[in-house]
């Protein structure tokens, strides 16, 4: 385990880390007492939980009534009495709802909303997330109050000072992060104020998993025995000195990949490649979906929706994890012992699936994961030796063995935690808050803005765009639609490092410069970023929008003489900070000789 220093804060604090997954979710927490060494715990008891998804997780399921009020959540939604009541009163069951929040571009383009159970028009994914997080908070409070002698006083004293760490897939960006923060407000976790938002920290699932692996795998005896003879591994310091590691977080809806290497300090790591987030056909939900399609296609008299739903649920909860390989059949329980149809391998309420057929359900996910790992290896700037597999899908011995066969043939060592891999993200998110092990990250995209630039007749690209040239009030000839790059893709960025470029705006009136509203664009294509925003449009999208009130500054501007009229000019900088898991954008300018910064 990691050796932590005693907490140096001046007051007691509670940190809650939420892992809201496509299929299962959980909560971990840390009680920070001044002078005490922090310890991370997981909520291990939930209402109506009976080993559903393990002790530490509950299914990400909600029931809403026809008035869109929450009626049942998590393991409670699987109780027979609740299911019966839901049918009688026509409650709305929501599963896989998190996938409605996914980015709709590139990696997510292979899956459409029609592939996911729909949301009622009156419910947004942000609202559902808020309701689910509110439930997780209540469960966490109940558990902590019951599990710790000082639990009740802890919540009473913490009041509105609880800090939250909320994890999300690697591929989620500004719009999704904004939805998460909005959901935290709707859930009543924080007030919608700058002080309230400061109590929320977002972390990618990949980085959270790294923290979990460092604590639970690098220091474990079994891992040490495997790597002790490998060059470049310092067992005493428990660090990788010359070899990198890829974290594969295999979840329900996505598989996230992140690559890291030690900076030379046993408690400091850096990203060595842009993170990856893959959707279709990787996540475990797609294995279940393929199983449902196969079962429907059998043509059995048990092909009615209710029977198929029972079989699919049984496959998802038991058979999928227990499957070992092509040499043994898999049995899916449903109905009663009187349900038999020998012509379709159904006997006494059990459907027999041949091993080779089940293996085909896994094949697209396994092959896509292998391809994603190979892609991450190529993108990494350090030699990759280790691959750590975490997440709910990592519990599958078949997935692990298939990945191990490929990776070992390529000289890679595949490992997974001995403890419940399903709690890796939640515990890792809490460790991210406490230990903060990653000091440098790699930008996933190229970021910049759409602007004008002075016309250069010697520039061939400018000459080709002479038709887009016009003369500003200042008399300067400019061309439009320039993609002005502020931060390039695959740039290593420390937490305190700024990337900035200077710009200016002109107007014949001061009122035209009272505010700035600038979109930050991200180029997500594999090809080099274009010079102009009307090129490669499909790979350019808005990452965020930064706004600043410049009215005070504008009123101080002095009029300038132009060719035909006077005008006003406002000079400012766009500043990007990418050292944390959230992109931060700022507008900065000099006002009365002092710099002024407005942060979004």
C-alpha end-to-end distance: 37 Å
In helices, the fraction of residues equals: 25-40%
Helix run count: 14
Mean pLDDT: 86
In terms of quaternary structure, the protein is: single chain
Which structural class fits the helix and strand makeup? alpha+beta
How many structurally independent domains? 4
Q: How large a portion of the residues is in β-strands, by DSSP E?
A: 25-35%
The total strand number stands at 32
CATH class of the largest domain: Alpha Beta
CATH fold-type name of the largest domain: Nucleotidyltransferase, domain 5
Taking the sheet with the most strands, its summary is: 8 strands, mixed
Radius of gyration: 27 Å
Describe the model.
- The protein is of the alpha+beta class and 600 residues long.
- The chain folds into 4 domains: 191 residues, Nucleotidyltransferase, domain 5 (2-Layer Sandwich); 151 residues, ATPase, nucleotide binding domain (Nucleotidyltransferase, domain 5, 2-Layer Sandwich); 78 residues; 157 residues, no CATH class.
- It is built from 14 helices and 32 strands.
- Strands 12, 13, 14, 15, 19, 20, 21 and 25 form an 8-stranded mixed sheet that branches. Strands 1, 2, 3, 4, 8 and 9 form a 6-stranded mixed sheet that branches. A 5-stranded antiparallel sheet has the order 23-24-22-27-28, with no helix packed on it.
- A hairpin with a 2-residue loop joins strand 17 and strand 18.
- It is globular and about 95 Å long.
- About 4% of the residues have low confidence.
- This is Actin-like ATPase domain-containing protein.
- InterPro entries: ATPase_NBD (IPR043129).
């Amino acid at each position: 385990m990691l050796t932590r220093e005693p907490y140096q804060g001046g007051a007691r604090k509670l940190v809650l880390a939420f892992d809201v997954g496509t299929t299962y979710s959980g909560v971990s927490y840390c009680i920070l007492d001044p002078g005490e060494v922090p310890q991370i715990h997981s909520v291990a008891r939930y209402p109506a939980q009976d080993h559903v998804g393990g002790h530490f997780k509950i299914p990400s399921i909600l029931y809403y009534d026809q008035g869109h009020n929450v009626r049942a959540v998590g393991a409670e939604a699987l109780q027979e009495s609740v299911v019966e009541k839901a049918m009688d009163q026509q409650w709305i069951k929501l599963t896989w709802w998190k996938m409605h929040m996914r980015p709709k571009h590139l990696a997510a383009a292979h899956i459409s909303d029609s592939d996911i159970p729909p949301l009622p028009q009156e419910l947004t994914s942000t609202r559902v997330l808020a309701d689910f997080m509110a439930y997780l908070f209540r469960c966490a409070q109940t558990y902590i109050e019951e599990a710790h002698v000082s639990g009740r006083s802890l919540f009473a004293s913490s009041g509105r000072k609880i800090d939250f760490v909320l994890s999300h897939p690697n591929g989620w960006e500004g719009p999704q992060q904004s939805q998460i923060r909005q959901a935290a407000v709707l859930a009543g976790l924080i007030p919608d104020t700058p002080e309230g938002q400061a109590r929320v920290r977002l972390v990618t699932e990949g980085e959270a998993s790294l923290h979990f692996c460092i604590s639970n795998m690098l220091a474990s005896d079994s891992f040490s025995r495997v790597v002790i003879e490998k060059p470049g591994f310092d067992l005493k310091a428990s660090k990788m000195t010359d070899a990198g590691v890829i974290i594969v977080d295999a979840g329900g809806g996505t598989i996230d990949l992140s690559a890291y290497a030690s900076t030379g300090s046993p408690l400091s790591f850096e990203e060595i490649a842009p993170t990856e987030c893959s959707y279709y056909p990787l996540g475990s939900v797609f294995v279940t979906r393929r199983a449902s399609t196969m079962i429907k296609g059998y043509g059995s008299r048990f092909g009615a929706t209710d029977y198929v739903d029972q079989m699919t649920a049984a496959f998802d909860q038991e058979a999928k994890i227990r499957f070992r390989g092509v040499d043994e059949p898999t049995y899916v329980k449903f109905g009663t012992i009187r349900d038999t149809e020998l012509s379709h391998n159904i006997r006494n309420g059990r459907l027999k699936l041949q091993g080779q057929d089940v293996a085909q359900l896994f094949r697209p996910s396994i092959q896509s994961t292998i391809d994603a790992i190979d892609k991450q290896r190529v993108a990494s700037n350090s030699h990759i030796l280790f691959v750590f597999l975490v997440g709910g899908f990592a519990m599958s011995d078949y997935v692990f063995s298939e990945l191990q066969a490929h990776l070992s043939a390529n000289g890679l060592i595949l490992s997974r935690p001995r403890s419940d891999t399903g709690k890796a993200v939640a515990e890792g998110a809490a460790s991210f808050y406490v230990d903060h092990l990653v000091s440098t990250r790699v930008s996933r995209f190229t970021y910049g803005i759409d602007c004008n630039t002075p016309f250069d007749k010697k520039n061939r690209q400018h000459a080709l765009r002479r038709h887009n040239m016009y003369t500003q009030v200042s008399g300067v000839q400019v061309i439009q639609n320039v993609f002005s790059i502020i931060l390039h893709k695959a740039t290593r960025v420390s937490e305190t490092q700024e990337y900035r470029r200077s710009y200016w705006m002109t107007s014949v009136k001061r009122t035209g410069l009272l505010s700035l509203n600038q979109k930050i664009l991200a180029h997500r294509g594999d090809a080099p970023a274009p010079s102009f925003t009307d090129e490669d449009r499909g790979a350019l999208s808005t990452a965020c929008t930064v706004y600043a009130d410049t009215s005070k500054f504008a009123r101080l501007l002095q009029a300038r003489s132009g060719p035909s009229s006077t005008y006003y000019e406002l000079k400012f900088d766009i500043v990007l900070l990418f050292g944390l898991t959230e992109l931060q954008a700022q507008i900065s300018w000099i006002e009365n000789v002092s710099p002024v910064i407005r942060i979004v």
